[in-house]
Every structure is written in structure tokens, then in C-alpha cells.
């Protein structure tokens, strides 16, 4: 059973868990509202958390680490996708018509 003083810390952990879900879904447009909600919650917490909040804080810390890992994973996927788009573009240009870059000069004799 959770101690009453730990309730806000459980809310914090659930907030971070929701952040992880949103990042996993690719719903990054919904993160701003979640971060605003978290900022309000953090303003209400005391500088020194109560002892009963320890399990929730540990859970929040682990979830936060998972968020960092998920962000890095998503970033890597975007880099790979960007490289593939660039490669496909180069390949497609190779199949296009040859471009004559020489200047066209007409001479009259």
C-alpha cells in the first residue's frame, strides 16, 4: 500500500510512464502538454522528499532512463531513414536523363 505522502511521486512516475508511451507511439506532438503537467507537479513537491516516496522516485528514475533510451533509439532510426532517403534520391537521379551542363553558344558565320 502506498503512503499518502508518496501520492504525488506516484503521479510523477505515471507521468514519465506516459511520456515513454507517447514517444514509443511517435506522438511527440502531445509531449508539450505532458511536460507542462509535470512542471506544475514538480513545483508542488518539497525540496526533500518524504521517505515513503522512495519507491516511486526509484520507479520514476528507471522510467526516465527508459525515456532517454527510447529517444536515442528513435533518433538513430531517423538518421538511418534520412540516409536511406538520400541514397534513394541519388539512385533515382542516376536513372534520370543526362543533363548537358555545357554552355550553348550559337555562332553566325
- Work out the count of structural domains: 1
Major beta-sheet overview: none
Structural category is mainly alpha
CATH architecture: Up-down Bundle
Write up what this structure looks like.
- With 109 residues, this protein is mainly α.
- 68% of the residues lie in helices and 0% in strands.
- It has helices at 7-25, 31-44, 54-94.
- The N and C termini lie far apart (100 Å).
- The mean pLDDT is 89.
Question: How do the strands and helices of this protein lay out in sequence?
Answer:
Blueprint: H1 7-25, H2 31-44, H3 54-94
Give a quick set of tags describing it.
single chain; 109 residues; mainly alpha; Methane Monooxygenase Hydroxylase, Chain G, domain 1
What does this entry show, briefly?
Helices cover 68% and strands 0% of the residues. With 109 residues, it is mainly alpha-helical.
Amino acid at each position: 500500500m502506498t503512503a499518502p505522502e508518496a501520492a504525488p511521486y506516484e503521479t510523477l512516475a505515471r507521468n514519465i510512464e506516459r511520456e515513454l508511451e507517447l514517444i514509443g507511439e511517435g506522438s511527440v506532438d502531445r509531449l508539450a502538454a505532458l511536460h507542462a503537467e509535470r512542471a506544475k507537479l514538480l513545483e508542488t513537491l518539497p525540496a526533500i522528499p518524504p521517505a515513503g516516496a522512495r519507491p516511486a522516485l526509484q520507479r520514476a528514475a528507471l522510467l526516465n532512463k527508459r525515456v532517454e533510451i527510447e529517444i536515442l533509439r528513435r533518433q538513430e532510426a531517423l538518421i538511418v531513414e534520412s540516409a536511406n532517403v538520400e541514397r534513394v534520391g541519388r539512385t533515382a537521379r542516376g536513372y534520370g536523363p543526362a543533363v548537358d551542363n555545357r554552355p550553348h553558344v550559337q555562332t553566325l558565320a
